[in-house]
Design goal:
Keywords: Acetylation, Fatty acid metabolism, Isomerase, Lipid metabolism, Lyase, Peroxisome. The chain is an alpha/beta fold. The protein contains 12 helices and 9 strands. The protein is 48% helix and 13% strand. Strands 1-2-3-4-6-9 form a 6-stranded mixed β-sheet, with helices on both faces. The protein has a 3-stranded mixed β-sheet with strand order 5-7-8. β2, α1 and β3 (60-64) form a beta-alpha-beta unit. The model has no long low-confidence stretch (mean pLDDT 92).
């Protein structure tokens, strides 16, 4: 049954959202435009992620798409919108404004990393340019056999600037990243799996969604405190030394670990049932009651 908490979420122009069994399913909803990432998309994605985190009982987020392609990437209308692009006759002020715009775009995709819920992406067809930036910020990636990926920005005469060049080398070998970035060529689902970018390749979108939802269901059945701890530690370890990461782990464990969830696990195993864990406390703003 769909949770009543989904009713608290606003309507989004770019996404359709369903919530069931503590899994939030976010689907891109502009197939007629190849789910290109227009201005509304960039504005709504971080809000959507944080709304799910703070206003629902979801423990996992699955991001998928509609139509033939996952996403054609950045909608060029973002750059032709006078209300978005900085306007000044002063080159230095234009440059500062453009830097601010790029930082805002980067922050949109970083929201996938910053929320405490695991984010799984299910990709069909083209995953192009900014869409590749997005899936690199997710926790895990799955795709159909007809999926393909490309660092499209190179072919367009610019350097990819919202995350692929920073995150992809943490996911696959650097030499392969450089080849893909320098050439801008398409690489297939099979290559993506071989490189280690995607966890699994499915025959079609239907079987992919079934498979990814099964994985999400397994995650949602685990202690949400343990799962969010895993995400926090893995992301921290990616960006820090082993020594620093071990120290952070010890501090986290000293502050967060309590035996309650473990006892529920042991009791459930003894009774051959599924343990029922408490949800994490909702995230509230500083002045919310």
């Amino acid at each position: 049954m769909t949770s009543p908490q989904i009713a608290t979420l606003p309507d989004y122009k770019s996404f359709n959202i369903t919530l069931e069994n503590k899994i939030a399913h976010v689907q891109f909803s502009r197939p007629e435009a190849m789910n290109s990432m227009d201005k509304a998309f960039w504005q709504e994605l971080p809000v959507c992620m944080r709304d799910i985190e703070s206003q629902t009982d979801a423990r996992v987020i699955v991001i998928s798409s509609t139509g033939k392609h996952f996403s054609a990437g950045m909608d060029l209308g973002v750059f032709s919108d006078s209300s978005t692009m900085p306007q000044s006759k002063d080159p230095s002020r234009m440059a500062e404004g453009l830097r601010r715009l790029v930082l805002q775009l980067q922050a949109t995709l970083s929201s996938l990393e910053e929320i405490r819920l695991p984010v799984l992406t299910a990709i069909q067809g083209g995953c192009i340019g900014g869409a590749l930036d997005l899936v690199c910020a997710a926790d895990s990636r799955y795709c159909t056999a007809d999926a393909y990926f490309t660092i499209k920005e190179t072919e367009l005469g610019m350097t990819a600037d919202v995350g692929t060049l920073q995150r992809l080398p943490k996911l696959i070998p650097a030499g392969i990243v450089k080849e893909l970035a320098f050439t801008g060529r398409k690489f297939s689902a099979q290559e993506a799996q071989q490189f280690g970018l995607v966890n699994r390749v499915y025959n079609d979108q239907e079987s992919m969604l079934v498979g990814v939802m099964e994985i999400a269901t397994t995650i949602a059945a685990n202690s949400p405190l343990a799962v969010t701890g895993c995400k926090e530690m893995l992301n921290y370890s990616r960006d820090h030394t082993v020594e620093d990461s071990l120290k952070y782990m010890a501090t986290w464990q000293a502050g967060m670990f309590r035996p309650n969830d473990m006892m529920k696990t042991f009791q459930a195993k003894a009774m051959k049932t599924q343990a029922q864990y408490d949800d994490l406390l909702p995230i509230k703003g500083l002045f919310e009651k």
